[in-house]
Amino acid sequence: MTIQICYARADRQFLLTQSVAAGTTIQQAIQDSDLVRQAPEIDISVWRVGIFGKLKTLDTVLRERDRVEIYRPLIADPKDSRRRRAHKDAAEQKKTA
Fold first, then answer.
1. What is the helix (H) or strand (E) element at residue 27, kind and residue range?
2. Which candidate, 32, 34, 29, places its Cα nearest to that of 59?
3. What is the assigned CATH class of domain 2-96?
């Protein structure tokens, strides 16, 4: 069966199409792909993975045409970033008022 494995970093995006046997897990597909050689920073033992935007475990069995996604760890908490921006915007509005 045919699947895709995708991963994006700041300088490049990877989208690999791969044929795998029935019963292949996400972990097996990633390990068998050429992606880890092309992007050695990938650490699936720590990083999250998913299929079409839904988080999955490494032992999830793949189905025909699944798109495996490898998610990089966040460098900042999105909620904290929004709070800082809101606080900064409020402070700037006070200055101009």
1. helix 26-32
2. 29
3. alpha beta
